[in-house]
Amino acid sequence: MLCVLAMLSYFSHAQSVIIGSNVNLPPDSITRNQLLRSLNGFLAQKEKTNKDNSYVLKEYLPETSDLLDEIKRMEQNNVLKVPDFYKCYLTNAAKTGENDYVVQIAYIGIKDNAPVLRAAFRLQAKREGVQFYFNSPLKQNTISWRMKKFGNLTCYFKDTLNAADVKAYQKQLAFYDKKLNAPDWPIAYYYCDNFTEVQQILGIDYKLDYNGTIYNSLTAHENNMNLTLNASISYPHRFDAHDLFHERLALVMKSNVNRPVNEGCAYLYGGSWGYTWDEVLAKFKNYAAANPNADWLKLYTESNTFESGEKPLYVAYVLNALIVQKIEREKGFAPVMELLGCGLRQKGDENYFKALEKITDIIKADFNVKMWELIKGS
After folding, report:
1. What residues have CB less than 8 Å from 63, skipping those under 6 apart?
2. In this structure, are residues 142 and 190 in contact, taking their beta carbons and an 8 Å threshold?
3. Distance from C-alpha of 198 to C-alpha of 202, rounded to nearest angstrom
4. Could you report the per-residue pLDDT of 289-346, keeping only the tens digit for each?
């Protein structure tokens, strides 16, 4: 720890990135200035829409967009409510070709005289003209992986590919896309062993937010294509049908999505935490039976869980699943899309109840009664 503190004491500022005296920068002053100026420019634009970052080449946009999403807001310490608590340090700049470098950066803050590492990232830098462009090392890191195409789906894997997983994924994908009228974009799908591997191939050397996370997936949608780095072990297949609904909805509805309705759809069509919808519903009906005086309106607006722990299940999400099921059965999926787009969740959920009343016969005043009817009829 003392060594790290000593190292940090030798760092000096160079624009927005802090450069350490022990970092070997390009000896040529022109190259050095171009690299540092470009890196600062890349980071200065990281909060923009990813495709608008002028330091990213379009051919590397999907994977770099995924990595940029991970770099956004890294300066912030939400616990201490300090917007620029973590500083960006350049920790390595290694030449790998005539105009190519590997660049590593770390976001470090100081608390109680001790360094706190928030995240560390690895980027490839490529010079074209008078500036450098930056991209995720995904393609380089998976150059030895195997590839197999299934129509517009391209699977990348190290050794073997489970054909049943691919078939199940395509079936679930087709089910969602038909409902949502989602675009039939090409999909690049990487099968990883765990989430640590997902991070490593993308260019995340470390991220505090993911400390201890074993299974998760990262996705991006750029250049009219979808990228998925999968490390899910959802049963019975190697993808999460719940998360897949969120991914496909994001292609057709980019803003004003009501989360409880979104989650309700994902519960209904994809289950949650490895549970099927029937299993989630059974758990919920047991809860309802044990709480015959439950006030569903109160439980909904207060975001209560009916099962907590490592796999929490939410009252509002199951209620919305039942409501979506009712709407789709009676009127089709178009009104469900209207409810999904009723706006971000508000305190008291007034926008939601206004849309619900317009689409169904359910009004806020009789929400509790209507929910009991749906629960008992399910």
Report:
1. 135, 136, 138, 139, 202, 220, 227
2. yes
3. 6
4. 999 999 999 999 999 999 999 899 999 999 999 999 999 999 999 999 999 999 999 9
Q: Which residue has the tokens 């379009």?
A: 58
Closest CA to 277 of 298, 296, 263, 260: 263
290 CB contacts (<8 Å, ≥6 apart)? Answer: none
**Which CATH architecture does the domain made up of 2-135 adopt?**
Roll (3.10)
CA distances in angstroms from 359 to 107, 112, 334, listed in the order given: 47, 55, 10
HSE (CB half, 13 Å, CA atoms) of 107?
Answer: 22
| CA 55 to mean position of chain CA atoms | 22
User: Could you tell me the two tokens for 170?
Assistant: 């395509």
By the 8 A CB rule, do 307 and 318 touch? no
- Which residue stretches of the chain are H helix? 2-9, 29-44, 61-71, 138-141, 163-180, 195-202, 241-252, 259-270, 277-290, 296-301, 315-331, 334-340, 350-359, 367-377
Ordered DSSP codes for 234-274: -SSSSS-HHHHHHHHHHHH--SS--HHHHHHHHHHHH-BTT
Question: How many whole angstroms separate alpha carbon 218 and alpha carbon 229?
Answer: 5
Tokens, residue 73: 């807001």
Single-letter amino acid, residue 70 = E
What is the token pair recorded at 142?
Answer: 């998976």
> Where do the domains of the chain lie?
2-135, 146-252, 259-377
CA angle 299, 303, 304 (to 5 degrees): 60
φ, ψ at 66 (rounded to 5°)? -60, -45
- In tens, the pLDDT along 96-119 reads 999 999 999 999 999 999 999 999
The number of residues making up the chain comes to 378
- pTM of the prediction? 0.88
